[in-house]
Specification:
The protein starts with a strand and ends in a 5-residue tail after the last helix. It has four domains: 176 residues, Nucleotidyltransferase, domain 5, CATH 3.30.420; 153 residues, Nucleotidyltransferase, domain 5 (2-Layer Sandwich), CATH 3.30.420.40; 109 residues, Substrate Binding Domain Of DNAk, Chain A, domain 1; 87 residues, Up-down Bundle (Substrate Binding Domain Of Dnak, Chain:A, Domain 2), CATH 1.20.1270. The protein is α+β, with helices and mostly antiparallel strands. A hairpin with a 2-residue loop joins strand 16 and strand 17. The chain is 37% helix and 25% strand. It binds adenosine monophosphate (AMP). The site of adenosine monophosphate has 18 residues, from helix 6 and helix 8.
Length: 618
């Protein structure tokens, strides 16, 4: 039965909208949902067709864009306007992909090497974000066709090693395709969720996710505790996958055919026939012991054993990466509780057996390895839809958290993307003699000035016993517990006075707001650095003025009239500089005032040391 929700604000009925899970893959992509009746994750597919949509975009005449199987079939015939592996270009500059540029049969633009790559098709240019958005749009339309309802919200998966730029690019692609991307989640996390891992509250587990696809290999070591997934390490090879298995069979046959290399170079069609036959052989050998085929009246065979001998070095390479991932996570094979298999190439029996032998336990391969990531994304989507409220949604802080310090500067205690639960503390002190209270203002955001960030809470730590400025030690501690609740504590360590407050930070912002704040921090980065430098210079100047004033009041009898006059002039010049927007000028005036005061400050110091020594026996 479909759920009907009531909007409490308006009292109206609203139909619950389906949130889909999307695996946006290098080779194939697909959509999954939680079936409203069975409550089980299912991959969406049209009758008699595969759930997999090849991640290939073809640009035809008159601007017609085709995505999927039809586009894939044109890869060999129209290589320059049929785009595959756009995922490999997400968030990358030409410099990043330069060494692999020859692997793409289409044109990648390198006119401005530091900006993001673009792909040229005819006289048009496409960013990887746009290319991915074509794939996502196709997936969205297919899903709408199958579900017979609009699909506007999605969870999209990305490799665990994707950096911020790549994650942002994926989000943007979703937006461009008309999708509200509620969350980007890691592929290995999704695969684990599809196996129901991490859905029990008390569960503590270490998981190895082995993902061997068509062209890429990734291994991730994850830890789940209290419903929080943490990526301990990742490793892999971005150019190792099922295609390499196909190539070794193709090579084996091409050599045994007795045909010269030039024949294949001149006959691309023949090469393609070998390629397709080799893939068919590989797939067949996952179930049978031998395979035969005829290509242009030549008979070729291969046994499972022969294939395994050829494939072993490739499989060993993946195991080597697993060993490295374990090492980086500070673990050994015995520490791993569960192994999850992802990607079509894990159907190869040698792969399964080798991985099980390496970890010393059976692997999880019950769920379709092509669909497992999308199915897990659907599980996450369902959690976001509020259908599984026990489960924790947050595993990292989306924005930095900090407090306001002198001059309105943001002092970050917990940087964004920190894993939760997390604790951080820092010591502060008072600015004025006898100051009895400190105001702690908590902010969230990436900008250097708190006024550009979002205020979450504010409280006063009062009752600090009178002490000279700089003497009290106020420790401000932030703790985000597993439920995402931030607790801020302030304690004056000498007197033990303390005060705390609870804030719920993350829930207050929508993903769009978080995005906007991040974007702002990038756009304003330069400006922020300049402002921070100016604020710091002003604070330093103000402090110097105050301390000089204090010094003169105490030691006026030590100064010559000339020194007094010079000091007053330098202080005035500094005072004036503080009202201007020029940090270099402020620094210059600080230096000048220091120059003037240095001689008498040194005399005062000598005298103080002298009187301290008086009467003391050495
Ligand atoms: P993926 O990128 O996860 O979609 O993986 C696709 C890869 O899995 C391709 O290289 C396929 O040839 C390979 N694959 C699919 N089915 C099988 C199978 N039954 N046996 C071996 N490899 C397979």
């Amino acid at each position: 039965m479909a759920k009907i929700g009531i909007n409490i604000a308006t009292g109206s009925l609203q139909k619950e909208e389906m949130i889909v899970g999307i695996d946006l893959g290098t080779t194939n992509s697909l959509v999954a949902i939680i079936h409203p009746e069975s409550r089980q994750p299912v991959a969406l597919k049209e009758h008699n067709s595969s759930s997999l949509v090849p991640s290939v975009v073809h640009f035809g005449d008159a601007g017609i864009v085709t995505v999927g199987e039809q586009a894939r079939e044109l890869l060999v015939k129209e290589p320059s306007n049929t785009i595959f592996s756009a995922k490999r270009l997400m968030g990358k500059s030409y410099n990043d992909v330069r060494n692999n540029a020859h692997l793409f049969s289409y044109k990648i633009i390198d006119d401005n090497t530091d900006s993001l790559v673009k792909v040229q098709v005819g006289d048009k240019f496409y960013s990887p974000v746009e290319l991915s958005s074509f794939i996502l749009k196709e997936l969205k339309e297919r899903a709408e066709h199958i579900l017979k309802t609009p699909v506007t919200k999605a969870v999209i998966t990305v490799p665990a090693y994707f950096n911020d730029a790549q994650r942002q690019a994926t989000r943007d692609a979703g937006k461009l395709a008309g999708l509200d991307v509620l969350r980007i989640i890691n592929e290995p996390t999704a695969a684990s969720l599809a196996y129901g891992l991490g859905l029990q509250k008390e569960e503590e587990k270490k998981i190895a996710v082995y993902d061997l696809g068509g062209g890429t290999f990734d291994v991730s070591i994850l830890q789940i505790s209290n419903g929080i997934f943490e990526v301990l390490s990742t490793n892999g090879d971005t150019y190792l996958g099922g295609d390499d298995f196909d190539n070794i069979i193709r090579q084996y046959w091409m050599e045994s055919s007795g045909l010269e290399k030039e024949v294949f170079e001149n006959d691309k069609q023949l090469l393609q026939e070998f390629r397709l036959a080799a893939e068919a052989a590989k797939k067949a050998l996952s179930k049978e012991d031998n395979f035969s085929v005829t290509i242009r009246e030549m008979a070729f065979t291969i046994t499972k054993q022969q294939f395994e001998t050829l494939a072993k070095p490739l499989v060993d390479k993946t195991l080597h990466a697993c060993a490295n991932a374990l090492k980086d996570a500070g673990l050994t094979q015995q520490d791993i509780d569960t192994i999850v298999m992802v990607g079509g190439s894990t159907r190869v029996p040698l792969v399964k057996e080798s991985v099980a032998a390496f970890f010393g336990k059976p692997v999880h391969d019950e769920v379709n390895p092509d669909e497992v990531v999308a199915l897990g994304a659907a599980v996450q989507a369902d959690i976001l839809a509020g259908n599984n409220r026990d489960f924790l949604l947050l595993d990292i802080t989306p924005l930095s958290l900090g407090i306001e310090t002198m001059g309105g500067l943001m002092d970050v205690l917990i940087p964004r993307n920190s894993k939760i639960p997390i604790k951080a503390a820092r010591q502060y002190t008072t600015q004025k003699d006898g100051q009895s209270g400190i105001r702690v203002s908590v902010f969230q955001g990436e900008r250097d000035l708190v006024k550009d960030n979002r205020k979450l809470a504010e409280f006063n730590l009062s009752g600090i016993p009178g002490m000279p400025a700089g003497l009290p030690k106020v420790e401000v501690g932030f703790l985000i517990n597993a439920d995402g609740i931030l607790v801020v504590k302030a304690k004056e360590l000498r007197s033990g006075v303390e005060q705390s407050i609870e804030v719920k930070p993350q829930y207050g912002l929508t993903d769009e707001e978080v995005e906007k704040m991040l974007l702002d921090s990038v756009t304003h980065a330069k400006e922020d650095i300049a402002t921070r430098a100016l604020v710091e210079a002003r604070t330093e100047g103000e402090q110097l003025l105050a301390s000089t004033e204090g010094f003169i009041a105490k030691h006026v009898q030590m100064l010559t009239p000339q020194e007094l006059q010079d000091t007053a002039a330098a202080m005035q010049a500094l005072q004036l500089a503080l009202t201007m927007e020029d940090k270099d000028l402020i620094h210059k005036k600080i230096e000048e005032l220091n120059e003037v005061s240095r001689p008498y400050a040194e005399r005062a110091m000598d005298e103080a040391v002298g009187s301290a020594m008086k009467g003391k026996k050495i």
